[in-house]
Every structure is written in structure tokens, then in C-alpha cells.
Amino acid sequence: MSGGEPEILVVGAGFGGIGMAVELRRAGIDDFVILEQGDDPAPRTADKYDILRHIRFRSEVVALDFDDAEDRWSVRTAENSLWRPRVVVLAPGSGFEPAFPAFPGRYSFRGTSFHAARWNDGIDCVGKRVAVVGSGALEFLPELAKQAVRVAIFQPAAPKSLWHRLFEHGPGVRRLSRWISGKYDPIARHDNAELVTDPIMRITESGIATADGREREFDAIVYGTVFGITDRFADRHLVGANGLTIQQVWRDGPEGFLGVAVHGFPNLFLITGPNCGAGRRSGLFVIEAQARYIRRCIERMRLTGSTRMEVRAATQHEFNRRMRAKSADGFHNSGDRFQDEQGRGLTAWPGSSGSYLRTMRRFDPNHYELTVPADREPAHEYAGPALLDAPGSVLPVEVALSGHPDPTDGLYHWYGRISATTSSDLPDPGRSEVFLTIPGGAATPARLQERDPWGNLRIVGIGVPPYPLEPAEIHSS
């Protein structure tokens, strides 16, 4: 069953999906659809921005495949509907698996406990003592405060007033809170709401023990903690350009660019993707900044008439190198509360809220390749075996090479892809000059550039290429 060909398809109607929809509507972009696994609108989807008509409920996305020929995504749902959008935005919502923090004793709690992303509709909070761990359950706090006899919000390392930060002085978050609901701010006036900033040491049979030596007793614990980036896509059918799967790209851990893009997956944007963990910031602040950035990407595609937009491999590589370097220096060492249930670390933004906001505001189109099919490299001039002579080794490789004369310098520029049986055997890009030899040809000087997600290298050269050039036909009149 055909779902249609909207320009933009948003997966998930949670904070991220609704925030993205509001940003699109504010920019005058109306050709989008939101697919939501749930079966009814939550209060956060109040139709202030005319969003409800864009949402298709009971639509669980089970497969996403990129069509290289058409520069479109094929998105299939569990109901066997097929959508063919140009752009896909994956937003955190009910279709993603949450991750629980690795607190000792979590399974010993005798009361009711669950993650906010899998809300327990059967819970009755009237007269109960409820703990909320993390800021991901903010949308439920007003109702909890009305029903429960006591609500404790555990937000380690939070400022003196969480409400003051979230709704008055958090960069951009005040606007986002107004987008989704006007109900959050009043909870600050509830006498039964308590903010606990002491770190959680363990979960007990009856409640939560904190670093100050206190143990608070609860009837229910709601986890609003960060989502597991790797687990979020562990079993998801997500296939990008040239058949590349997300599991192949992230086999050594999730990497992306600014938490919104991943090389090898054109026209795909993420909200709260890798490398943007909220750390000590509100997740709402991150969502708003990313939604605005993605909207600018979409506007750039429209302005240039491009059908494909993909972050450059070199851009993503350098971004992640800097992230690792800053994290190693000890920026925002977040501890267990930013680990999943296997104890694996989740990367937070290694800087201040202000630095993140400034980075997301500096949209640079040069970080991306924007193309249409006619712009891409022509058919290969040579594809087959070759020898790569790099400093210290001579390696048999497979190459696919193309080239063209450049009118600006009058020289022939050639380029292509090098692959080996074991990609780790290939030398690092950016090293000294190498030589490439194809059967029957001469050794030709070249340089190695960026490595793609498959482990292949890009090779470039100027002057006589390693393959023979066909003489141009000259017709006399």
C-alpha cells in the first residue's frame, strides 16, 4: 500500500518529532508527514501549530532503505505502507528502545518502575510517592504532581533551581516548552514537588539512596534518562547509500556529525543522535537547537535544487576526533547516569550550553555535499586490480578510477576509490606521496584522501593518469 511521496517524513511524535514539525511549520514548510507508533495523541501534541493533521498514528516504521538512483528513502511500516520521502528525520519517540541507567540494585525495587518512553498506563499515582529519575519525563510531571502525594525529581549536578533553568534561562528551551505544552511551569508551585541534586548511589527495595546518606522511600520510580544510541539502532533495518547498513557503520561505536547527520546516509537527519548527549543540559535545549539546524539543511537543499545532501566524511572524521580529544581532557565527566544498562558510556557534548548553541547556529553548507544525479562522478575510466606502493609496503588493491580535464589549470585531474581485501591493510590517508600501478601501466604518483564508512580510501592525482586516455575524435567540416 502506497503511503505517498512527501518531501519530508518525520519518524516519531515525541519531543523531537513535534519540535521538528513546529520548526518546519514556522518556516512555511508544509509538505511533511509524521509517523507515530502510538494510537492516540498525547497532550504534548496540542494543535497550536496545526500539527495533528500531519501525524499518522499506529504507524510503526520497520524498514528504511535509500534509493541511490532516485535520491529518495523507501520507508515501510508494520502495516505494509510504503512511503517515499526525499528527506527523513528520525526523532526520539515511542519507536525507540530506551536505556536504563546502570544503578546498583535497580532490579531489587519492590514497587512499580518503568521508563517514561514506555509509560505504564495502568499505574494509579493517586496518593503515591513517585520518583522521577532524569529530565526525560518532564511532560508527565504536571499530572504526577496533581495525583501523587509526593514527587521527587532526581537530577544530579543540576543547578539550584531546575525550573528556573529549564523554563526561564535555558537557551531556547522556554520557546520549545511553549510549543509543546503550557503545563510544565506551574509544577514549580506545587508544594509536593522536590528536586534532588545529590547523585544516586543505588536503588533499594523500598526506594533510592543518594550520596548524602539519605534513603527516600517510593511507591513508583519513573526513569526519564537518556536513550541508548547504539541500542536504538541495533536491530533496526536502516540501509543507506550503496547498501551500507547502520550496523556496519557503527560496528565500533556510534559516530555522526553534530548529532544530526551520519556519512553514508544521505537525506537522513537525526534528533539526539550520537555526539550530542545533553550532559548537564536539558534535552529540550538540544532538541530545539537540532530542529532549527535540520530545518536550515532542508532549506539549503531547496535553495540549491539539490536532491541529495550528505555530510562529508572528512568533516565527520574531524568532528569526532575533536570530540574524543575534548572528552579525554575531562569535559563533563558524566559518570554512570550517562551509561546504558551494560555500562557503556554515552558521549555528551564536551562543552558548555553556550558553546553547543553557537556551534549549532553556525550552519556551514561546505560541511555537506549537495548534489543532483547529473553532478556525480561519471562512469569509471578504469575499474580493476592495481598495486598501491605506499611508504613501507606494496599492496594489491582494487580500484575504480575516473577523471576529467580541469579548465581552470589546463591539467587532467583523476580520482577514485581504493579497496583491499582487509580494509585495515590500507595506509592512513593524508600520508606522503604514493604510487598506483594498473596492469600494463606505469607507476603514477598520487595522494590518499579520506576514508569512507566501508574502510575504502579516496585517491587523487593531477597529470597523466594510471590508465590510458582515449584520443578525442576530431571531425573536419
From TrEMBL:
Gene3D superfamilies: FAD/NAD(P)-binding domain (3.50.50.60). Residues 380-468 form the DUF4873 domain. Coiled coil: none annotated. This is DUF4873 domain-containing protein.
